[in-house]
Amino acid sequence: MPTVREIEQALFRLAPKEGAMDWDNVGQLLGDPDREVRQVLVALDITEAVADEAIAQGCQLIVSHHPVMNCKWLPVQSVRQDTPQGHLLLKILKNDLSAICMHTNLDVAPGGVNDALAAALGLEDPGPLEVTDGICRVGHLSSPMPFQAFAQHVCRCLRANGVRYAGAEGPVQKIAVGGGACADYADAAIAAGCDVFVTSDLSYHEFLDAEGKGIRLIDAGHFPTEDPVCAVLVEYLCGQFPGLDVSKSASHREVIQYYVEGE
Questions:
Q1: Which among 154, 155, 160 is positioned nearest to 176, based on CA atoms?
Q2: Could you tell me which of 79, 78, 77, 85 has the C-alpha nearest to residue 48?
Q3: Measured between alpha carbons, how far is 175 from 192 in angstroms, rounded to an integer?
């Protein structure tokens, strides 16, 4: 069976480390590189529930998209049992688990986060929205769709609990997508002549400004826009290491719920 190090090397062939942003932390972040791996759990995030699931299944490794530590929003300053982050890290280490995280390098990689999102929405001929960093994708629907119907399509395809959207009604066909927080690419979507930009974590002002710029926006949530890549990772690892038991987390799901007053 492969070691953690060998699995990390395989994942870097899918999403080279050089593609990661300079603030990011990717690769093996916890555990023994020489540990033999028989069972892997894949999840978008490494949460307490995911760690418990991996332990219960007898896994040796968790592979996630979001780094479990040392990234710009979750720097490790201490590892203490009485803090949420410390408690999680100690649980992983005490149970001899390893963690490999593929983040912004997986965002830009061909076949990674954004290609998985484009595929989930049924976009044809997706390509990079911007050549410079290659994070977002742009593609076409096979035939035009009313904007509100497309918003419903996005919600259903991504199994989101709800989506936020804004923009004028009318047919849409050319679509830009950015998994996770990609609001900074709205102007690029406009410049490319897109009818809609699907991303997440949009602010009130970003919705407001887009109306004047002539772009329709759909915020489908951070988890729903990135979770499709987990199935890609499962399939990839199974192909690279026949006989390795790889599964997607059943416990990790969208944390944000919506209450909508009856229409």
A1: 154
A2: 85
A3: 10
Domains, the chain: 4-106+227-248 (3.40.1390.30), 110-219 (3.40.1390.30)
Measured in residues, the chain has a length of 263
pLDDT value at position 213?
85
DSSP category for residue 184: G
Contact by Cβ (8 Å): 226, 117: yes
Question: Count of CB atoms within 10 A of residue 1's CB?
Answer: 13
Q: What is the pLDDT of residues 14-58, one digit of tens each?
A: 999 999 999 999 999 999 999 999 999 999 999 999 999 999 999
Query: 242: how many CB neighbours lie within 10 A of its CB?
Result: 6
Could you give the 3-state DSSP secondary structure of residue 50? Answer: helix
User: pTM of the prediction?
Assistant: 0.94
Query: Of 39, 19, 17, which is closest to residue 29 (Cα–Cα)?
Result: 17
The first and second tokens of residue 141, run together, are 């629907």
- Per-residue pLDDT of 65-93, as tens digits, reads 999 987 777 778 888 999 889 999 999 99
